[in-house]
Amino acid sequence: MELLHTIAQQLEQGDDEQVAALTRQAIEEGLPAKQILDDGLIAGMAIVGNLFKKHQIFLPEVLLAAKAMCAGMELLKPLLIRDAIPTLGKVVIGTVQGDIHDIGKNLVAIMLKGAGFDIIDLGKDVPPQRFVDTAVREQAQVIAMSALLTTTMPVMKQVIDLIQITQPPKPIRTIVGGAPVSPEFAREIGADAYGYDAAHAVDVVKSIIAKGSPLRGG
User: Fold this and answer.
1) pTM of the model
2) Which of 20, 96, 109, 117 fits a disulfide with 155 by CB distance 3.0 to 4.6 angstroms?
3) What is the CATH number assigned to the segment(s) 90-211?
């Protein structure tokens, strides 16, 4: 539909006012909330994600697109809740304890939210127990951990060990990333997956949830 295509285009351009206005128009015209979400907002962020993956756009453009996505989501959220529209999955994300770097983590959270995931962002300097307690309480399928300092990387293994000790009712998968993190390190600590950048992390998380089994990115 032309209106939804235009929403996607304006989101790609990072025009939050136009995205909000067009989303409101789509709602007033009686289009289903899920269709507006999938064919408008998520479709636009998918384009942004692909361009970012190909290095054709950069962080400022992604942040503008994310702002536009949020403008549309604010209008859609009550309708999605009313209609009980499921998300792709729930992800708990944070930078591990001892590390206060969060630019990369924030970008991953933005891209995951733009792809249709429900994101619980714990911020930075997050203790292992908080990762696990939150994931269990919120029934999240995935914990995503970021580290920029090599000295904080061992905290990732503490989280993974704690999941095994806790034995949550439903499996919780883990994905790790950050400048010093590698696929080899992810395998070594028993992580289910590794994401080398934000766009790749989205693909990997989708695969983890869809397959319900470990997938090692890289």
Assistant:
1) 0.85
2) 96
3) 3.40.50.280
For the stretch 131-170, pLDDT in tens is: 999 999 999 999 999 999 999 999 999 999 999 999 999 9
Digit-coded pLDDT (tens) for 49-97: 999 989 999 989 999 999 999 999 999 999 998 988 888 999 999 999 9
- In terms of DSSP H, where are the helices of the chain? 2-12, 16-28, 33-36, 43-53, 59-82, 103-114, 128-138, 154-166, 183-189, 198-211
Within a 13 Å sphere around the CA of 99, how many CA atoms are in the beta-carbon half?
A: 27
Position 16, amino acid: D
Is 1.10.1240.10 the CATH number for 2-82? yes
Strands in 51-98 per DSSP E: 90-95
Q: Where are the domains of the chain?
A: 2-82, 90-211
